[in-house]
Amino acid sequence: MAAAIDFERLQAEVELSCSCCLNYFTDPTRITRCAHSFCWSCITKYSKGRQRALCPLCREGFELKDLRPNQEPAALVNLIPKEVKEEDLETWDEPTSSGDGACGSQSSAGQGPGEKEEQIRNISKQLEMTEEAVNILRRDLSETKEYTSQIKSRIAKDFCCMKEYIERREKYTGVH
């Protein structure tokens, strides 16, 4: 049980699963441009037939020459007890009939445990709320610009009126 507790702490600190297949890394490979890691077979299958592909996580462009082995997660995955790996595999949903994971379909919905799906839903909600906030701020900014323009126009008009008044006063009183 102590190993499982240590594993849980380790997993909370370090990502040990591929976001394409949602399993523990097998031959972890890092995209050098963005530093995201995937299983070698997942990322090569994902980018197959393309000279330049986009990272499934951040959309940073990469070529096969930009892929490098990532030994750190490989070493950490090797530390996970076999029983824990098997237990975690039993909690996953069955893969799709085509065998594509999240990277093959460019979506991880329905591919992993409920926790990952919940995280995705929460991130989607946060994204929608952020978009709504940005739209509100844009509308407010537009209204503020319009209001500022009206005030500026009013000040210019008032200044012209005051100037005319002063010029008339000077004309009548003979003061220059």
Element-by-element helix/strand order: HEEHEEEHHHH
Major sheet: 3 strands, antiparallel
Which stretches are low in confidence, meaning pLDDT under 50 for 5 or more residues running?
93-101, 105-112
Task: Report the strand count.
Answer: 5
Fourth CATH level, the homologous superfamily of the largest domain: Zinc/RING finger domain, C3HC4 (zinc finger)
Rg computed from alpha carbons, rounded to a whole number of angstroms: 30 Å
- How many separate domains make up the residues? 2
CATH class of the largest domain: Alpha Beta
Structural features, described:
Strand 1 and strand 2 (37-39) form a beta hairpin. It is built from six helices and five strands. A three-stranded antiparallel sheet has the order 2-1-5. It has helices at residues 2-13, 40-47, 71-79, 82-91, 102-105, 114-173, and strands at residues 28-31, 37-39, 53-54, 61-62, 67-69. By secondary structure, it is mainly α. Residues 93-101 and 105-112 have low confidence and may be disordered. It folds into two domains: 2-109, Zinc/RING finger domain, C3HC4 (zinc finger) (Herpes Virus-1), CATH 3.30.40; 113-176. Helix content is 59%, strand content 8%.
